[in-house]
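testing teh design pipeline on a random one, pls ignore if ur not involved
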């Protein structure tokens, strides 16, 4: 009789959480705040981060805050220095900071491209490698917030989807180099009802279906503790990935209404100019 060895659970006491002031990051911080954890909450938005941490002041967790722009290696290095100073060690690093553009890509703008890749790709990859150097053989875990768009591209999100696909392929290759591949996990949320999409552009159409940030946070916490490598908060999307193996045209079916919404948005945007 075949017996499958159960994967050991991952336990943690110290956490670095980026993008902690809003959306999925805020939901994670809120749920973790009810546990006796030590957390360094990181965000570029001073006002929102301060307000978020203040609302959780009376909870069980010890939460410190750090306002910083993670678009440069110097600032990521500073983040690690601060984390070691206030936490002593880093069991879990959640690279959740990121943003999107929603646009018709027809203007070559190197600076704009570089900005999103610095935050969405370079920063989390750099942090993952630093976590390996910092911890060595000591158990640790890195979680990166990717996107369902790492698998399924949608119009308007060409650059954003490219950043998330880059994380996906990096993770697949990097795990092959690690002694313990479970040390890196990626999260693939579908469109999440947060302020995240407000940064992508005015009045952008939201892809269907959507899910709540609290739901995504619960899925991430469960996935971390079960030591998963891939976390799919949406069962519907996980089902799509399974079916798409046998019915490759399914992707085009999903993309068609999003193309229609994108073209309608372009017409409205042109009319507002």
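output:
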């Amino acid at each position: 009789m075949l017996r499958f060895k159960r994967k050991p659970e991952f336990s943690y006491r110290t956490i670095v959480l980026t993008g902690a002031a809003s959306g999925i990051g805020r939901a994670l911080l809120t749920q973790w705040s009810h546990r006796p954890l030590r957390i360094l909450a990181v965000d570029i938005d001073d006002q929102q981060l301060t307000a978020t941490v203040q609302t959780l002041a009376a909870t069980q967790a010890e939460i410190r805050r750090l306002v910083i722009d993670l678009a440069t290696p110097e600032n990521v290095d500073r983040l690690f220095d601060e984390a070691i100073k206030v936490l002593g060690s880093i069991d879990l690093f959640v690279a959740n900071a990121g943003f999107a553009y929603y646009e018709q890509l027809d203007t070559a703008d190197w600076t704009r491209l570089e900005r999103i890749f610095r935050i969405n790709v370079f920063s989390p990859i750099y942090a993952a490698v630093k976590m390996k150097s910092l911890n060595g053989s000591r158990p640790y875990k890195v979680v990166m917030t990717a996107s369902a768009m790492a698998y399924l591209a949608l119009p308007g999100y060409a650059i954003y989807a490219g950043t998330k696909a880059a994380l996906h392929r990096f993770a697949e290759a990097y795990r092959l180099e690690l002694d313990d591949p479970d040390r890196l996990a990626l999260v693939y949320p579908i469109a999440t009802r947060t302020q995240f999409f407000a940064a992508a552009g005015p009045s952008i159409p939201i892809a269907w279906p959507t899910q709540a940030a609290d739901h995504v946070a619960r899925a991430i916490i469960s996935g971390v503790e079960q030591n998963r490598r891939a976390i799919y908060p949406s069962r519907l999307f996980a089902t799509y990935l399974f079916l798409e193996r046998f019915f490759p045209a399914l992707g085009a079916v999903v993309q068609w209404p999003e193309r229609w919404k994108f073209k309608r948005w372009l017409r409205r945007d042109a009319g507002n100019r």
